[in-house]
């Protein structure tokens, strides 16, 4: 399996299965001299952690990031930052019932097709447990980026949508509710709805929106590695993501040029920002904003028809502790991936001109 | 500028500015022994070419792909395939009026910010002229992929949308109209609308849909290089693209797990295909389908306020021959990028298991 | 610090400092289905381990490789293989005397120049401790390569040279002596010499030769990634290496074409093998052989003048337990790096033709 | 064929066969703002060109580098620099006699083994003609590096060796003789010897030495991408190279630590320079120097036994115009590859610390 390395200069490699001994990662290319606050890393981990509220999975994971190298006396040394996160929740027997069964809309079937075998314990490598490593690495990337502020939040749960624009919202509200929606009233509705869905043994999808402010102009490498193209890859690489749009997005496709063009102010800023802070694949200094669509979690607590690896029909029912809606816990993952993309482009941009 | 190389094993590097002497590219990693029909390449070029119909730009480019290496006696030799496409349309003086002016929603400002200078002749590297190289390379990738069939078409122009599902459409209709919409009646409306928009000196956005059939299971490299994540990057790297969704997409985010899960048939196929042919980042053998949103072309034939490189207000108006809607010509580009992604994963997959 | 990732398809990333908590690595791209014998890995580690004989450093390291992912029920799963090796020998205080001192011919000065700070505990990242990770990964690569046999041995210690050609030697002798020289009489002289050098508080260089048999034709990727070019990089990346030659090497430069050309037998093998099993950067099926020159270990137990980070003259003397000659322990490292190179080309070659 | 891309940030991709229409390349990642003197590029080409003196091949190639993109108004723009060099010498019929014959010590056999087919016209991709692209790209890299001075010269032809150290030589002498040896008397002997060898229809090997001065400390990326490791790969990737050593090289392996260590002066420079300007893979500011061994050219004007692609014995004799000794023309190629390596590390080093 290639594809476990992300980035050109700020490169994250991750490893680990959901029910192996540990997961972990290595960042190669973080510059020397970055002050690292380890508590900040742990804080981000807590935002992604199972069991953090009543509307997420109640699995127990301490998610302690143990840094093994690359940081010395509080600063990065320029050498690779290796880290591991132990899997506390290694109950392999829980998963024997799915050993030979292909769970619908999971990766069981495709892994078997591709690799000829798979670690059937709880999704193995295809489990979203891997994203814990991204959050750890993203927390380091954020400390490199310093003044660039990345803020994600829940903008939809099923058909319940946050109708306000991000500029009308108070981002301080985000962490005040379990859904991570910056509008209290909407958050409440979403929370109620998630609980209702869970009580049905069902799950629901949703949308995360992300806003990045204080971005210097110049980040992004056209042609193939446009800033939004790598953001797109980054977001689509998160488990359960089905779509990505930035700036005016799919709505922009309905517009005319005369209404969509962002006219300049004299200082180079623009009056409107349909461009989403990116023109020609390069940041222009305006806010970057984008949306990420998540499908409903595939594991539901209802009986489903499926097949086993022999191609025989079987009936199965989800067991264990799963998220009814992945979106609240996805918020820090979206931020982490955005941070990894920006850190990479931030370094690349140091070599754009003499 | 890094970012001009795409792919891991089937790697395309492109070069060239819209008004330089030529553009071109190199494919490194195409296996030996692939029979190449040069006419097929030229056919794809013709689908992207300016001047092909009354609703696209009337610029003249012969867009002849001259292959310089890597193909011998009708077959690839395994060595890099270098090619050039001359720019017939090199009228640099046409562009002197924009030398110091930042066109709204173009990349003029961001290139200057990033590189400190730029080739101001008609967009230079940021021009969609570069996509001609992608189409040429994609035509070669298609010949490697052989049985895998990639079909893109126009599914929306502005607010005019093709309401049918792709399974209800006759793909043979696509190339029968200038808009490349497989539904004749809708195509007619779209064409009329584009002409109307053009007569206003305006432009309009749209959506391209793409369907890939006959894909073997196993393509895609989780974790970061999921099949849909690289498709997403590929599509978002096309000029003017604002969004990407595959399978159920943004609508999938509104659904419940119980309605969204794709239940298996005994042969491993699925009854529904909300997954869009991809599970856990790996193809499962079902059709892959996705949508790509394009913003309206930024160059409009109306007066617009803007600034020059000195930060002074100026008024400008688009000149020359531009597309009122990019979508009809984007159809082969979307296909080409899909082919490049699949060719790469096709080769990578040969190393997935012993 | 970039440069901690090696390989294109079979990719090893390593991390860790000599006196941090642990070192480790990740292999991304090992195909699924490779049977892994964990004892084989540990056996290779034992060949590199400190304290293995009287002529190597007496430091204590258990060098137990703990595999965290990627292997399930005795086989690789295609997912990344993460592993850690704990540093038992973490006595940081031992190194306080070199905190501000630049040891001659070490990397202290250059790391400070490059990174602005460094982990001064025992060489940190620049320590050859890192090569333990290469040996672990190489042991896995060897199991992928199966029938390809890689054998390295000591061919010179200082001016004491093994005069026989590799074809005259019995490789079974290699592991029978502490020097790893396949000629008993020469081995004895070398061992005596190393002890003498050590008793002087001095160190000495040497040469490792490596022979690879049973290589299929076709491995190697011209132009820049010729098989011998990547072997060269791999070997030169090992600590203390100063030179690399393959086939006829530097002696070949003295020869005439008429005496150097390898004439073919009818089966495609060659009568002579000055080419060293590689022609045009691609293996031809004959034995690959090469030599690697190691400089004397820089840490000597004699007083030396040097400077501190303030640029002041100071006198220093090596402390602790160091190798008087690195070559016996380098033998498995050379093999490991060769295995990593071959594993990568073995996978790449699966995509060379349709 | 992968392996046609070199470098991480300053990336050269080359393409083209010796007897195709043209060869060429693309540099992706050259920063914007570098002043480019096109005559300097052509000057370097002239140093590598066939027909430049009486001791090299008398083939005719104008070797004009045509730059197609990336340079505008005398400066790089940051976009990829595409260039082509036409093959004037396309006489395919000259090569029909080797269509089915495997020339000894050439790449004919291995290409057929690897790719299943090959362009048999004069070596195709395996021809040293490809190095013309490296020289063109290297000439651009040199202009980026500016103050760093790279000087290569012939230090041996067959057994005739330049006995002086580089510090005793006058580099201004190098271009004054056809052999490119900075010692007039030795150059004369070498020239006479090459002519003698040629009159026998034979060829001879040799050694190029290279010295790089004015290198800032800090270039090189440990662990795998040590400065000397990438220099080694770069040199070994040149056609006919059999060995590489830097600093004390193979002789260093004979030395004791007490005689080999480079003691510091108070300014960080060292009294001796056995390290060859590189410690721990990173430049320390001292001169970098290394040697590169070239085998004798495989094409000789004598009858040789060989086999054809059917495995039958045949007799063949070289035809056409070939170099009796590759070393004089290899001098600028060695410099070009060194420039490419340094340009890459120069850019990478901009991201080593904050």
UniProtKB/TrEMBL annotation, chains A, B, C, D:
InterPro entries: Chorismate_synth, Chorismate_synth_AroC_sf, Chorismate_synthase_CS. This reaction introduces a second double bond into the aromatic ring system. One of its GO terms (molecular function) is chorismate synthase activity. It comes from the Bacteria. It catalyses: 5-O-(1-carboxyvinyl)-3-phosphoshikimate = chorismate + phosphate. Belongs to the chorismate synthase family. FMN binds at residues 125-127, 239-240, 280, 295-299, 321. Its cofactor is FMNH2. This is Chorismate synthase. Keywords: Amino-acid biosynthesis, Aromatic amino acid biosynthesis, FAD, Flavoprotein, FMN, Lyase, NADP. It is an enzyme of class 4 (lyase). Homotetramer. Its EC number is 4.2.3.5. Pathway: Metabolic intermediate biosynthesis; chorismate biosynthesis; chorismate from D-erythrose 4-phosphate and phosphoenolpyruvate: step 7/7. Signal peptide: none annotated. Reduced FMN (FMNH(2)). NADP(+) binds at residue 48. It comes from Salinimicrobium gaetbulicola. It holds the Pfam family Chorismate_synt.
């Amino acid at each position: 399996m290639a594809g476990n390395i992300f980035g050109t200069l700020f490169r994250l490699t991750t490893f680990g299965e959901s029910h192996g001994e540990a997961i972990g990662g290595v960042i190669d290319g973080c510059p020397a001299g970055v002050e690292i606050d380890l508590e900040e890393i742990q804080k981000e981990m807590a935002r992604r952690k199972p069991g953090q509220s009543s509307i997420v999975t109640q699995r127990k994971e301490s998610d302690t990031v143990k840094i093994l190298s690359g940081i010395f006396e509080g600063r990065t040394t320029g050498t690779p930052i290796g880290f591991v996160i132990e899997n506390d929740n290694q109950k392999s027997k829980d998963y024997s019932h799915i050993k030979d069964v292909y769970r619908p809309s999971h990766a069981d079937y495709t892994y078997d097709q591709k690799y000829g075998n798979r670690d059937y314990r709880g999704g193995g490598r295809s489990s979203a447990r891997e994203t814990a490593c991204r959050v750890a690495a993203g927390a380091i990337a954020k400390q490199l980026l310093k003044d660039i502020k990345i803020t994600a939040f829940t903008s939809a749960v099923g058909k319940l949508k946050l109708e306000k624009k991000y500029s009308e919202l108070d981002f301080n509200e985000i962490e005040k509710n379990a859904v991570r929606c910056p509008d209290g009233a909407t958050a409440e509705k979403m929370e109620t709805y998630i609980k209702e869905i869970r009580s049905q043994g069902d799950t629901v999808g949703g949308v995360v929106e992300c806003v990045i402010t204080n971005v210097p102009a110049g980040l992004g490498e056209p042609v193939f590695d446009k800033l939004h193209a790598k953001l797109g890859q980054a977001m689509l690489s998160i488990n359960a993501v089905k779509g990505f749009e930035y700036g005016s997005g799919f709505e922009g496709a309905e517009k005319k040029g005369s209404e969509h063009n962002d006219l300049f102010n004299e200082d180079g800023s623009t009056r409107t920002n349909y461009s989403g802070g990116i023109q020609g694949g390069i940041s222009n200094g305006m806010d970057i904003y984008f949306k990420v669509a998540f499908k409903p979690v595939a594991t539901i607590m209802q009986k489903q028809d499926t097949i086993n690896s022999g191609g025989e029909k079987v009936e199965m029912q989800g067991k264990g502790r799963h998220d009814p809606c992945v979106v609240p816990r996805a918020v820090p993952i979206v931020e982490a991936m955005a941070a990894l993309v920006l850190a990479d482009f931030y370094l690349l941009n140091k070599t754009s001109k003499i």
